[in-house]
Every structure is written in structure tokens, then in C-alpha cells.
Specification:
heterodimer, A: Beta-lactamase, seven-stranded mixed β-sheet, five-stranded antiparallel β-sheet, 23 helices, 23 strands, elongated, disordered C terminus, B: mainly alpha, three-stranded antiparallel β-sheet, 3 strands, 72% helix, 3% strand
């Protein structure tokens, strides 16, 4: 088919000519401006001087605790960089001697850096000492392309380590580089664990740049355009935590020599007050450069000091789980609080006998919690059934992530009918599993963090608040404090049930015969529950959960001491001291923590790491 | 054959323009890679020039009807390639856009530019299709938007913009009403303005509001298009808020290169110094200090215009501009003299692709536009781009030879 009539076509053609003409008119005018009017100015810049970009590292955001104490600070550190296209590769051996580095390492670094860009400086050594810095400065002329950058490195100011919670920063790895190609250059430092990783984008800040003029030989002769085009680095945002570093340091020293974890939460907002995982390590090992052998020894240590036990371990909770069963039983009207059992020290189901530690005689629900009577709860579990128990377990956040603001977290395991059917087949399991679950043993895995949240929910009569470590972010320009928001939900349980269960927990600590008497805090009524989790690999794990003050709880805790024995003697006293330290600010009678058993030597009894991580 | 015969059958002027540009391109790539330890780039480019000339010759002599016949199949083939590259493609500088065939790397989006023009021309040339009808207009837009969507997923914003730069002149050529043209530009323009901030957004809303008011009698239709424009502008701001930090940063750099001086902004600064310091006569071949000291990373790709600008000065740069202008003028003229309606659309579409490339690339090099990664046709290093530019010239020459056929 033919085109339209000529007049229409020629009209459009004229418009198009005009558009093309206009475009080139602009181009010619601009070329004229650049090459005829300003050519001398640009010529001067280019003939003698050319522009070089020197990246300016931002200062990483500071971290403060709830009382405004600076807990993570920065210190200057000098890093050596090489501009690949200026560098004379014959100088590698010389440079390696100056910096006491392996020449192969420099060669390798340089090669990788060049693959990224030949015009971006490659960092070859971070945090050099003053001797090396001086040697480098003296020999500057012989080392074209070699430069020193001032950076900041992390500096930890308090007595507390809080290793797993704060987390470390580390030079970015090649695999991270692949994901983050826009944001980072090789040699950049990146938050790699804990809060440093979780809040990396906000802590990191923004790189800046200084434009310097260099001569044809590449030597810097001054600032370009008097620094008018420079872009200052933007300091990272600060983090304000909910943690109390006084309590943190106290809890850490209390647990020295033990293996386990301690989590304390403010039940009124879900803010973490302290989070300890032992054994731990010194974060300053990671600021600056981490020698590979240090890194290896931390990673290979059988006691797994890098592993956050507070959020990643999966142990049965033992008797601390009995309140959950009590709530499930009361809410489904499987029993009444007055329902009594005569404990003769054992419980028979079919041909299987489940034992208790003591003969408790006749007990009702409140007192069964107080003395932690297994026989009582075996029977409650049989009456309540797996489904109701599992439902309330889920309500209290077991078997799923709490959503705490660090990446290291394990959902644990809360068996349900669906899970058991899947694991053992529909007919592969019987009610014989139930009594163990009823007392928090068997195929059940919880983290100390989940236990602390459970204690907090008991403290607040069902306000389950998402646990979190950071409370607010402070931005620098414009200066503002942005309070972070977290979720909360209400667990639907009747007032009467709460009262019964909480009274049981109060008696555990406050009444004679309670298993948690060693957690008592002078002058403050508190409530809690002990637990002793059986462990096929070695001695029992000691647990304690609790909250205080009883009428107006301000702290909820979970304490786990691995392979230590009874919860009542090994975990409860430590937890009690921590509660006292927080509520009173000091310890009235500082008896050294009662250690009846020698601390278990480390390389022992810990399940392999892969068994602890989520499947 | 007599000279008159050759002149009648062969568009040698366009061919000479293309060859002149390619020659300048080879010289520039040679200079840009001379001391950058990247000599293999120059060798590859020379091979690609050979392949490109071959492609040009083939496209110039294939039967005109055959070209028309393969338009749709070629279009669907290129869509298929774009889908495949999304799944299998090799990531080069952050986006998936390459096929790796041994040592040859091909970019399907380059191929898709041409086939989209062919398919669009075939559709618009149908006698029962009119751009005055909403349905036909939508189908035409669909033909363009399908490859654009796939290319945006790579993501390759530069190439996607080229498609819009091609579509608009074709619509104009096809007799779309003024209102249609305004209605297409308004949402896109408002969306871009919204990224700059609230004031530019309001300014865009007012300008397009007036244009819509002037071009559309039907107040309901006008109101609908106007609301859509405002809605898109507003939602852009919401979408921006929801983007990840690095995505926001990418957009910010796109809008304001100074926001990322370590990357794009640095290049523009260097580019301006290189071109400006060239003066009227230039510093001489291989004597441009900016070029030879490699201040612009990978100058042989998107910033190639700096090389003639610095080493051959205003004379060199102006020569390049004049050659490009001649190419575009000839393309439009060809579009108007071709008797065949399909041919007219193809000529205008291909010319518009060239024009958009030139506009974006040179505009960026001389610091008038933000950095958008599109190559300069014939000059930039890159096999796929050179091959597609030569193919396009071949098609234009084919149209010229058959310009009198209906």
C-alpha cells in the first residue's frame, strides 16, 4: 500500500527536519562552548593536571545502650591501597617487605582488584602499625600508586563483650561482593554478624570522594577546583539499644567458665536488656585485621564460641514448660486448678514407667508447679492431648522465629500432630510420646530467647512483644531520632488461668519447698520456674525462667547452663542475681555464685553445629 | 553498469557516511585502547567491522518482499531470545543481557530493536489499521512494550529508552492525533519529573494538563488521561519509597550523576575535561592526555566521543556530528520518498533509533544529559551494537533501492 498524499508526508518531514536541526544546534553550541570558550580552562586542567578521585570512607555509626553509654566506638586506622594502573609491579617484593606481607598475597589482591577496576584503589592491608606507616611514607617516591587511607575501625569501650549481639565487622568477601556489586568495593568493611550485619545499611554511612588534580606522571599536585566538587563522606547513623550494659557485663562475668546463655527482656516493650552466650570471644579481635589463624581457631574451637547460644541452640526446656501445659489444660477445661493427684514417685502408661525425682504426695495444680511434680503433669498431658498443648506452644511463640533484629536465629521445634504424622507416619507414634513432652522433654527444641519471651508473656498476662535489641536510629543530618516499631500480639487466656499459673510460679521462688528458692531477690517478690533438661550426650542442662517484681514485672529472664545439673541450683541462683542487679542496680550480698560442680571443660558434649542450625 | 544506474540502485551516500563513521570509530577505539593494555579490544572491533560490512551488504540486497515477510517471525524470534537471555544470560556489569556463544557475545536487545521496528511497520502498514482507533493504537503499543518489559527485567534502562525514542516518531509518522502523542508523553514525562521532586512534578502536571486540554475536545477523555497522568506521578513517588536502598541510589545517580561521584559523575567530569581541552584543532592522534592516561574507565564503550573530541578537537567532533546529522536527514528523506507505506515506517523507525542513540550518548558525553549507558552507533566498541547499526544501514539502503515499488 502506498504512503499518504505528498502534502501530509512533506509536512511531517519538515517537522522532523526541524527536530533534528534543533538537536544538533544544541550539540554544536555546547561543543563551541566547551572547545572554544572554555578550552583554555579545560586545557589547563588536562595538560598539567588531571582529576583523580580519592574515595573517603564514612565513619561507621556509633552504638549506645539504653542509658546512653557509648558501647561501640571508632578509632582511626591506616590502610594501604594500590592504584593498579599506576603501580609498578616490580615493586611488589619491596612493598611486601615493608608491610611484612606475602608477595603472592599482594599479587593476588591486585589481580582481583584489577578485574573490578584498574582505576579504583585496591586495599592490600588494613590497620597497619605506625612503624610500617613511617616506613611507607619515607619511601613514597619509590612506590607510585601506593597510598594510605585513613579509615575507622571498631573500638569497644565497655567491660561487657556482648560478642554475639553486637556482632563483628569484616572485610567484604568475594561472594558478598557478587551480590552487592553497586554498594561495595573490594576491601570495604561490612557488618557480618549480629547487629552490625542486621543494621548494616543504616550504620554504614555513605562513601564520599575528594577530587585531586594530578600531573601527567600521576602525582597529586592539589585539590581540583578548590574542592568545590568534593563530596564529603556521610557518617553512618547511630543505634540506640534497649540493652543495659551494666547488666550485660554483670551477667557475663557471672557466667564466666560456664557454657550456656542468658536472655533478659523488658516485658513491657520486648526490649532485650541483656543477652549472653558463653563461651564468647573478644570483638576487638575483628576490628582492624583478623589474623587468619585467630579466625581459624575461633571457628574450629569445639566449644563454638562464635555460635550464639541465646538464639541458635535447640534444647528441650524441661520443667520450665509446665506452665504452658497448665495453661493449655485449664483453657481447654481438661482439669480445674483444684484437681489433685497423689504422687507416688512414678507414672505407668501401658508397660512404660515414667519417673519423678521425689514422692510429692497429694498436690493440686499450684503446688504441682511449686514442687515441679512430674507425675502430676504426666497425667495432665494425657488429659489435655497433643493438639491443645501444641496450639498454646505456638501461641507462646515456640517452633517459630521470634523476629528478633539479628539474623542469627533458630525457630526451634514444637511437635504437633501433623509433625508427628509426617515424621513417624500416621500410625508410627502413640500417646506414649506425650508424658515426656508434658514435662518439656523429648522431641522438643527451644532457644533461650524463646524462653525469655515466654517468661515475658507470662509476666504481662499474654502480651507477646516482638523481642528487639535496637530501640532507635539516630540520623545525623538532619539530626533526628527515629524510634523503631515492633509488633506485639495478645495471647487469649482467661484471667483466672493467668492467676493460677502465676501464683504457682511465685510459690516456686517465694514459698518453702519451691524448687527455685535460690533465685529469691531480697525485698522483691519474684516468680519463676526451674527446669532440668535431660541430655543424652552428658549431664543435664539447667534452666530457669522467671520475672520480677511479681506485681509489676520489669524484667523477664531465661537462663540456660549447659551440662550443669539441676536448674534449681545451677541456673536459678545466677538468674536471681541478674534480676537483683537490674532492679536494684547493685547486689546487696555478693556471695560468689554457688558453683557446686566444677565447670565442664569445653571440648565436650556439644552437639555438632549442623545439628543445631535450622533444617 | 553506468554511473547513473548505480546511483539509481545504490544509496552510496548513506553507505559512505556509515563507512566514514566506522573509520572514525576504529581510529578512536585504537587510540582509547592504545596504552590501556586492552589491545585485544581493538582487534575484536576490527573483526566486527568486517562482520558488520558483510551484514550491511546482505541486508542491502535481500529481496524487499522477503524483508516484509520475515518481519513478524523475526520479531517473535527476538522475543524468544530476550526470554532466554533472562533465564540463561551471563551477567555483565550488573545486568543480564548477553548470550555467550564461544568467544562471540551477542546482545539480543540490539537485535530486538530492529525486529520491533519491522513488526511495528508491518502492522501499521495494513490498510485496515488506523492510529485513530484505540484498539489499533493499543496493539501497536503492545508490540513495543513487550520487548521493553523484557529488557527492563535485565535490567537495561538505556536500551528500553531507545524503544520509546523510536515509537514516538513512528506514531507521529503514522498520523496519530496530537492528543495521542500528548497522552503517551504525559504519563512518562510526569513519572520522570516526579522522581526529581514535588516541584518538577507539579510543573509537569500543569504543562501536560494544558496540553491535554488543548488537544482533546472530549472533556471526559481528557479528564481520564489527566487523572492517569497524576496517578502515575504520585505512585512513582510511593514506589520509590518502597525500593531498596541500592535501587534508590541507582535512580538517584541516573537523575543526578553528582550524587555518585565515584561512578558516573566522575566520568562526566573527565569527559568534559577531555572534550574541552581538545580546543579547535585537538591534541593530535594518540596525544590526548586524558585519553592516553585512561582517566575515563572503559572509554572505548560509552564515552568514545571524547576521543575525537580531545585528539581532533572541535574539527573532529563537529565532523562526527555533521556525519550523524547527514545520516538522520537522509533517513527522514528516504522515509518520505519511499512509495511503500511499510518502507516509510521502517525508514522512520530506524532513523529514530539512530537519533535516540546519538541524542543520549553525545548529550551525556558533553555533559548535557545524565549518564545513561547507550553506545554511540558506529563508534563505540561492541560487536552487537556495531552489527545492528550496520544492519540498519543495510536495510535503509535496501529501501532506497526499492523506493519506487508500491
Amino acid at each position: 500500500m502506498a504512503q499518504e498524499d505528498d502534502i501530509a508526508v512533506y509536512g511531517k518531514r519538515r517537522t522532523m527536519y526541524a527536530v533534528i536541526g534543533l538537536m544538533f544546534l544544541f550539540f554544536f553550541a555546547r561543543l563551541f562552548q566547551l572547545q572554544m570558550i572554555y578550552s583554555e580552562e579545560y586545557g589547563r586542567q588536562s595538560e598539567e593536571n588531571s582529576i583523580r578521585t580519592i574515595p573517603k570512607e564514612p565513619v561507621r555509626g556509633y552504638i549506645f545502650d539504653r542509658n546512653g553509654t557509648l558501647v561501640v566506638d571508632n578509632r582511626p586506622a591506616f590502610s594501604v591501597t594500590i592504584m593498579p594502573f599506576e603501580f609498578d609491579k616490580h615493586m611488589i617484593d619491596y612493598l611486601s617487605r615493608l608491610l611484612s606481607l606475602d608477595p603472592e598475597f599482594i599479587r593476588d589482591r591486585l589481580k582481583k582488584g584489577e578485574a573490578y577496576s584498574r582505576f579504583a584503589p585496591v586495599k592490600i592491608k588494613r590497620d597497619i602499625d605506625f612503624r610500617a606507616l613511617a616506613a611507607l611514607e619515607e619511601n613514597r617516591d619509590r612506590l607510585p600508586g601506593v597510598d594510605c587511607q585513613v579509615e575507622s575501625k571498631r573500638w569497644y569501650t565497655t567491660r561487657a563483650l556482648a560478642s554475639h549481639t553486637l556482632g563483628y565487622t569484616k572485610e567484604i568477601s568475594e561472594s558478598q561482593m557478587k551480590v552487592q556489586v553497586d554498594e561495595y568495593a573490594p576491601g570495604d568493611v561490612v557488618g557480618s554478624a549480629g547487629l552490625e550485619a542486621r543494621y548494616e545499611p543504616t550504620l554504614r554511612g555513605q562513601k564520599g570522594a575528594e577530587f585531586s588534580t594530578v600531573n601527567v606522571r600521576g602525582q597529586v599536585i592539589g585539590r581540583f577546583d578548590n574542592g568545590k566538587n568534593d563530596v564529603p563522606a556521610v557518617e553512618g547513623n547511630d543505634l540506640i539499644l534497649t540493652m543495659d550494659f551494666g547488666l550485660q557485663a554483670f551477667a557475663e562475668s557471672l557466667m564466666t567458665g560456664r557454657r550456656g546463655a542468658f536472655v533478659a527482656i523488658d516485658p513491657n516493650d520486648g526490649g532485650i536488656l541483656a543477652m549472653v552466650s558463653k563461651p564468647d570471644y573478644d570483638l576487638s579481635t575483628f576490628s582492624g585485621v583478623t589474623p587468619p589463624d585467630v579466625w581459624r581457631s575461633l571457628n574450629d574451637d569445639a566449644a563454638a564460641p562464635m555460635f550464639n547460644r541465646a538464639t541458635l541452640t535447640r534444647y528441650p526446656p524441661g520443667s520450665t514448660f509446665k506452665m504452658l501445659l497448665a495453661i493449655a489444660a485449664l483453657e481447654t477445661a481438661s482439669i480445674t486448678p483444684a484437681w489433685r493427684v497423689n504422687c507416688g514417685g512414678s507414672f505407668r502408661l501401658g508397660n512404660k514407667v515414667f519417673r519423678d525425682l521425689h514422692v510429692h504426695g497429694g498436690v493440686d495444680l499450684v503446688n504441682a508447679i511449686r514442687v515441679s511434680c512430674n507425675v502430676y503433669f504426666y497425667q495432665v498431658m494425657m488429659k489435655t492431648g497433643l493438639d491443645a498443648w501444641s496450639h498454646y506452644g505456638d501461641e507462646f511463640g515456640f517452633g517459630r522465629l521470634t523476629g528478633i533484629d539479628i539474623y542469627e536465629e533458630n525457630p526451634g521445634l514444637l511437635p504437633s500432630t501433623a509433625y508427628m504424622d509426617k515424621r513417624y507416619g500416621k500410625s508410627g507414634w502413640t500417646r506414649g510420646f506425650l508424658p515426656s513432652l508434658g514435662i518439656g522433654q523429648g522431641e522438643l527444641g527451644v532457644t533461650p530467647l524463646q524462653m525469655a519471651c515466654y517468661a515475658a508473656a507470662l509476666a504481662t498476662k499474654g502480651e507477646y512483644r516482638q523481642p528487639h535489641i535496637a530501640r532507635a536510629i539516630v540520623t545525623k543530618s538532619p539530626r533526628s531520632v527515629d524510634t523503631l516499631t515492633f509488633q506485639s500480639r495478645h495471647i487469649e487466656v482467661s484471667e483466672n488461668t493467668w492467676n493460677v499459673v502465676r501464683e504457682g510460679m511465685r510459690r516456686v521462688v517465694e514459698e518453702p519447698g519451691g524448687t527455685g528458692g535460690m533465685a529469691r531477690v531480697p525485698g522483691i517478690q519474684s516468680a519463676g520456674k526451674t527446669g532440668t533438661a535431660q541430655n543424652t550426650h552428658g549431664p543435664d542442662h539447667a534452666w530457669y525462667v522467671g520475672f520480677a517484681p511479681y506485681d509489676n514485672p520489669r524484667i523477664a529472664v531465661a537462663m540456660l547452663v549447659e551440662n550443669a545439673g539441676f536448674g534449681g541450683t545451677q541456673a536459678a541462683p545466677l538468674a536471681g542475681l541478674c534480676i537483683e542487679r537490674y532492679l536494684k542496680g547493685r547486689i546487696a550480698r555478693y556471695d560468689p555464685p554457688p558453683v557446686t560442680r566444677k565447670p565442664v571443660p569445653f571440648p565436650q558434649a556439644l552437639p555438632p553445629l549442623h545439628a543445631l542450625l535450622p533444617r | 553498469m553506468m554511473y547513473q544506474d548505480i546511483k539509481e540502485r545504490v544509496d552510496y551516500k548513506t553507505a559512505l557516511i556509515a563507512l566514514a563513521l566506522v573509520t572514525i570509530g576504529i581510529i578512536s577505539v585504537y587510540s582509547a585502547t592504545y596504552d590501556a593494555r586492552a589491545a585485544e579490544i581493538f582487534h575484536k572491533q576490527v573483526i566486527w567491522v568486517g562482520v558488520g560490512i558483510l551484514a550491511l551488504a546482505i541486508m542491502a540486497v535481500v529481496p524487499f518482499r522477503l524483508l516484509q515477510l520475515v518481519s513478524y517471525p523475526a520479531y517473535f524470534l527476538s522475543i524468544l531470545m530476550l526470554v532466554t537471555v533472562l533465564i540463561l544470560g551471563k551477567t555483565v556489569s550488573g545486568s543480564m543481557s548477553w548470550f555467550n556463544l564461544g568467544s562471540l557475545r551477542l546482545q539480543p536487545s540490539e537485535f530486538a530493536k530492529i525486529t520491533t521496528v519491522l513488526a511495528l511497520a508491518t502492522y501499521l502498514a495494513r490498510s485496515d489499521v488506523s492510529l485513530k482507533k484505540m484498539r489499533d493504537l493499543s496493539i501497536a503499543a503492545g508490540i513495543v512494550l513487550l520487548p521493553v518489559a523484557l529488557i527492563m527485567m535485565q535490567p537495561d534502562t538505556g536500551t528500553a529508552i531507545i524503544f520509546f525514542g523510536m515509537f514516538f516518531p513512528v506514531l507521529f509518522w503514522g498520523g496519530a492525533s496530537r492528543f495521542t502523542l500528548v497522552a503517551i508523553v504525559a504519563p512518562v514525562g510526569t513519572a520522570v519529573a516526579a522522581l526529581f521532586g514535588t516541584t518538577p512534578f507539579l510543573a509537569a502536571v500543569i504543562v501536560f494538563g494544558v496540553l491535554i486540554y488543548l488537544t482533546q475536545e472530549d472533556r471526559i477523555v481528557a479528564a481520564a488521561v489527566f487523572s492517569l497522568t497524576v496517578l502515575i506521578g504520585v505512585s512513582v513517588q510511593f514506589i520509590y519509597e518502597g525500593l531498596k536502598h541500592y535501587q534508590q541510589k541507582r535512580i538517584a545517580t541516573f537523575l543526578d550523576p553528582n550524587a555518585d561521584p565515584l561512578g558516573a559523575g566522575y566520568n562526566i567530569l573527565q569527559s568534559k575535561v577531555a572534550i574541552g581541552s581538545g580546543g579547535f584543532f585537538g591534541k593530535g592522534f594518540l596525544r590526548g592526555t586524558q585519553t592516553q592516561l585512561n582517566f575515563i574507565p572503559e572509554q572505548w564503550t560509552d564515552f568514545i566521543f571524547c576521543v575525537p573530541g580531545e585528539e581532533f578537537g572541535f574539527l573532529g567532533a563537529a565532523t562526527v556530528l555533521l556525519l550523524f546529522m547527514a545520516l538522520l536527514i537522509r533517513g527522514v528523506t528516504l522515509g518520505s520518498v519511499v512509495k511503500n507505506r511499510y518502507g516509510g515506517f521502517v525508514a522512520i523507525g530506524l532513523t529514530a533509533i539512530f537519533a535516540t542513540h546519538i541524542f543520549l550518548n553525545i548529550g551525556m558525553s558533553i555533559g548535557l544529559l545524565p549518564v545513561i549507558g547507550v553506545p554511540l552507533p558506529f563508534l563505540s566498541y561492541g560487536g552487537s551494537a556495531l552489527l545492528s547499526a550496520m544492519t540498519m544501514v543495510g536495510i535503509l539502503m535496501n529501501l532506497y533501492a526499492n523506493r519506487k515499488e508500491y
